[in-house]
Known about the structure:
This protein has four helices and no strands. The protein has one domain (about 1-80). With about 80 residues, it is mainly alpha-helical.
Amino acid sequence: xxxxxxxxxxxxxxxxxxxxxxxxxxxxxxxxxxxxxxxxxxxxxxxxxxxxxxxxxxxxxxxxxxxxxxxxxxxxxxxxxxx
Length: 83
């Protein structure tokens, strides 16, 4: 999911993503590129949104992998019983 978000925002930033009436973080970043020094919040907030969404999906995926992996689950059970 994080890869899909990055791919869509990259394609939209380059101008080959979704069409103009649809909002996109990449298109927002591309439009705000010209106003980087006079209105930096136009760049900062979409970039933070992309970063937060990608980080959240990566952490969710890591947590699900740790929870679903039988080898990791047995390791956690053994280490908790050893205490």
